[in-house]
Amino acid sequence: MIVLGIETSCDETGLALYDSRPWEQGQPAHLGILGQALHSQIEMHQDYGGVVPELASRDHIRRVIPLLNKTLKESHCSLEAIDAIAYTQGPGLAGALLVGSAFANALASSLKKPIIGVHHLEGHLLSPLLAKEGPPHPEFPFVALLVSGGHTQLMLVKGIGQYELLGETVDDAAGEAFDKTAKLLGLDYPGGAALSKLAEGGQRGRFELPRPMLHSGDLDFSFSGLKTAVLNQVKKAEANNTLNENFRQDIAFAFVESLVEVITHKAMSALDKTGCRDLVLAGGVGANRQLRAALTGMVNKKGWAVHYPPLELCTDNGVMIAFAGALRLLQKEFSPPDLQGSFDIKPRWELSS
Ligand code: KG4
Ligand code: ZN
Prior knowledge:
Layout: E1 2-7, E2 12-19, H1 21-24, E3 33-40, H2 42-46, H3 53-75, E4 84-90, H4 94-111, E5 115-119, H5 120-126, E6 142-147, E7 152-159, E8 162-168, H6 174-184, H7 192-200, H8 224-240, H9 245-274, E9 278-282, H10 289-301, E10 305-307, H11 318-330
The chain binds 5'-O-[(R)-(carboxyoxy)(hydroxy)phosphoryl]adenosine (KG4) and zinc ion (ZN).
């Protein structure tokens, strides 16, 4: 089965073709990736310091057909080779989701192929199965740590489509905390990666920031206080005229150190509580080097395994939607295309069943 995946939930337009045959034959899942194309709108939104929903939808409309053509060319496939179309049905920006949904339903109608509405987070949490290197694939059940711009969740994954929420953020998502803190330090949106880089030049010990909910006993997170603690230090430095490069590096270091410690601690507790021995890290913040190093160190020390998506599949992309769609299709979960159904998007949608 060859599945076309379409991702348009936020500010990336991603398309990909995935062939399920290698997976069905027990071969590594990444061998099924036939081709992909991605356009990031980051530059367009940068002037506004965040994603402008209306601009996002309009840009998805402009990009989706050229990206489909690019994907087909890279895959050496024709439209007729597609067996099913998977698209991100939610959660995300309503207008942006509508573009993907309308396009997917229209194309599926004209090709007379089935359609699969995929949960964006399911795409993220299954993407570590596409890794080319690292430990062998995690066995079900495993724990997934989803850390993106919109979500921070620990999930027990019992099987495809069987997800139990173990804990989540009560306020800002980890990526949101990164982006807001980066903005306080004068970095462009989305500043997660730049903040992480800035932190690499910082000194340990100059600032001690709070570890929110570290000992709360549950698996929930809170990051808004951490960002406020950084804001207070920035205000102090402004007043004392010490807001220089060293300050920025040191406070960035303290921020990353605190956030990584809390996330690592909660992820370890989730493994302990569930008895799982495999941890999967997914979502944009999963690209963070400090978090990867800390998690790998802690998990490996116990003799357990941590699984990452390939770096280029950490942020939003069409491959993860095509892959999740293919696995759903193999479970016979699909529907006929429906042009009325184009409007059946789920901007808010819980993954856990
Ligand atoms: O998963 P994603 O592409 O989009 C959402 O679904 O939210 O995640 C984007 C988030 C942004 O907040 C971005 O700043 C953050 O991931 N991010 C990082 C890094 N790379 C991306 N945060 C920290 N360190 C990174 N290296
Ligand atoms: Zn995402």
